[in-house]
Amino acid sequence: MANTYDPTSVNVQAPAGGFQQGGWYGGRQFWAGSLSDPGAIHPQSNQQGAGQLVSAEVNAQSAAAQGVTSQNIEGYLEQQRQQSAGVAPSGQQTPVTRTAPSGQTAGAGTALAGAPTPETPNFPEIYKGLQESSGVTKLEQDFADMTTSYNEAQSKINDNPFLSEANRVGRIQKLTMDYTNATANIQNQIATKKADVETQLNLQMKQFDIESTAAQNALSQAMSLLQAGALDNASGESIASLTRSTGIPSDMWYSAISANKKKNANVGVQTFTAENGEVWAVAIDGNTGDMIKKTSLGIIGNVQGGGTGTTIKELKAEMIPALEGAKNSYGHITPQDWQGALASWIARGGNAKDFADNFRQYADPNRDDFKQAYGLEEL
Q1: Domain spans, the chain
Q2: pLDDT value at position 16?
Q3: What pTM did the predictor assign?
Q4: Percent of the chain with pLDDT over 90
Q5: Are 4 and 29 in contact (CB under 8 A)?
Q6: What's the pLDDT tens digit per position in 165-199?
Q7: Sign of dihedral through CA atoms 63, 67, 71, 74?
Q8: 9 secondary structure, DSSP code
Q9: In this structure, are residues 38 and 85 in contact, taking their beta carbons and an 8 Å threshold?
Q10: Residues near 268 by beta carbon (within 8 Å), at least 6 away in sequence
């Protein structure tokens, strides 16, 4: 049995010009005033396979046509299914076996295949828009222009019959050195901004879980490298790799590295989810508790409720369960857990002094570096 839904019940808005019979909207096919289950052909459709899920093979063909992966398509459909969980269908229909119109077979490029239409989620267009807004498109064009100029200048030197071999080689070497130096920064920017775009898209589509064990392990390892100074001269590609493995934007890494280099700040980078479901990345000076940078990653977490302002009393009530759960048999928490809790406290409107005043008992006073490790030296 296949379900149908009223578009408003699953939060699918009609595009300009209204829904079109057989069109795909939010991963669902529209037919006779209602929408199908995500990824399924509408049960009242006159197309072959009515009431059935589009096959994985056809989804793969459709993904290839749109320039994305099958995982992108499946991830999007699963997201739509989760969002509509618990929504009562407008009716249930018995699947009907249909025959494809003469001369037409089911496959990519037919309505059955969910071939790209203006209403279908167009992942390449989304990606293109993110690239343009982030400046990647312009940077790539600038790099292409510089490369064209370099190639033209190189050709002119090589084609000049009046240059001696030594003179030609010397000019080519200088030209290449100038080109390499001039494009190094732009290539770093392209690498990091591309990683930011890909990570942002994966976070929003839930193809990357920032709270997963893998992401948290990657962040922990990156913190060790950061605080040891191993990232002080990291290349753009290295920063891009950190962004993809941890979900933390490149500008956050650059800020953390810069702060750590300037004053050995024992910088910590953490993520937390606000009450409205918005996920934030925060860099904190571990010595002073000052916030270095705070960046929103978007609404990708679980929405826990509203709220316009939070008092210290409310903040304390929210924080205690997490601290209690992280403490050891002596009643203390690690400096890493302390910094994570502090980042969450500050991002919610608190300050480092209030945090220390309320939770100092969780810091381990038996450590030789007690004050430095917990950032209590200046508090």
Answers
A1: 2-100, 126-204, 213-373
A2: 64
A3: 0.47
A4: 14
A5: no
A6: 999 999 999 999 999 999 988 999 999 988 888 88
A7: negative
A8: G
A9: no
A10: 223, 283, 284, 286, 336, 339, 340, 343
